[in-house]
Amino acid sequence: MFDEVYQIYEGTVFRPPSEARSLILQATIGCSHNRCTFCISYRDKKFRIKSFEEVKQDVENVLPYYKNTKRIFLADGNALKIPTNDLSKILHLLEDNFPKLERVGIYACPHDVLKKSVSELKELKKAGLGIIYIGLESGSDFILKKVRKGALSKQMIEAVGKVKEADILLSVIFILGLGGKKLSEEHAKETAKVLSEMDPDYAGALTLMVVKGTEIYDEVKNGELELLDPRGVFQELRILIQNMNLSHCVFRANHASNYLPVGGTFPEDKKNILDRIDRILKKKDVSFKPEWLRAL
Ligand code: SF4
Fold it and tell me: Is the pLDDT of residue 3 over 80?
């Protein structure tokens, strides 16, 4: 069974932690940006949008095993790049074939959101697009430029505004430790500021993983970037949470890259989250996840 299913994927497939139980279908291959200095995910793939016929074939292949799936995640890197009419056609295909489908998720680059009008996004929502995941990574423009994210905080906030106007669920992801020791405080404060302005439905924290083959790996090797240790990561997270003011947001730092899981719902759990971080920081012998167990 699984051999057949796995053959539909081209290369390694990535998805957000909250899509762990979702059926993953590749509507695009790779990432059209593919320039972020910390990201190794799609370096081995040349970006392309799969044809409708290819996606249809994938659906036919998995249907005998996943007909009752409730959630589908459209990979790879930024499938929102697909022209609206074509993406709408794919969403209708999913709706027609999976009778219990409740939600379709997708990764999006801010530029791809900005290229779509709010009415296009509303059309996609009507066709079944339930949640968009955007990688903010940092709220600091200095760090965003440094890591070659390809967008600054103002554009990210604008993109998020459109997603919210279209009434599509929004999940924003950021990376703890991305500014290293030197920029840790700026990273925490600016990220909290931008997240507060975005006021997303979900916010997810990953922790920087330095992977050979990326530019950030070379920076660390050359001593240009000094990494935070696990305690430093939690000190950074504390500043971030302290400065984050959200009206209703599920916050999670439970990705495989995180040293310890932390989470809760804003605003009511903010104090509990801070207390948990304080307990972690006070303890002398905390069992942080060892480096060899952390993963992308
Ligand atoms: S972080 Fe996202 S936008 Fe940047 S290269 Fe990786 S997949 Fe592409």
Answer: no
Q: For all residues of the chain together, what is the average pLDDT?
A: 95
Structural domains present in the chain: 2-286 (3.20.20.70)
Q: Is the pTM of this model over 0.70?
A: yes
Task: Name the residue with tokens 């059926």.
Answer: 23
Q: Is 25 helix (H, G, I), strand (E, B) or coil?
A: strand
Please give the distance, rounded to the nearest whole angstrom, from the Cα atom of residue 269 to the centre of ligand 1: 30
Closest-CA residue, ligand 1 atom 8, reads 34
Higher pLDDT, 194 or 255: 194
Two structure tokens written together for 132: 């968009």
Nearest partner of 128 among 92, 78, 80, 166, judged by Cα: 92
Task: At 271, give phi and psi (nearest 5°).
Answer: -65, -40
Identify the residues whose C-beta falls under 6 Å from ligand 1.
Answer: 31, 33-36, 39, 41-42, 77, 109, 135
Helix and strand counts by DSSP (H, E) for the chain? 11, 10
Ligand 1 centroid, distance to 36 Cα (angstroms): 6
Contact 52, 13 (CB under 8 A): no
Span 41-90, pLDDT tens digits:
999 999 999 999 999 999 999 999 999 999 999 999 889 999 999 999 99
pLDDT, mean of residues 253-259:
90
Among residues 223, 244, 240, 220, the alpha carbon closest in space to that of 232 is found at: 240
Nearest alpha carbon, ligand 1 atom 2: 77
Q: Ligand 1, atom 5: nearest CA belongs to which residue?
A: 34
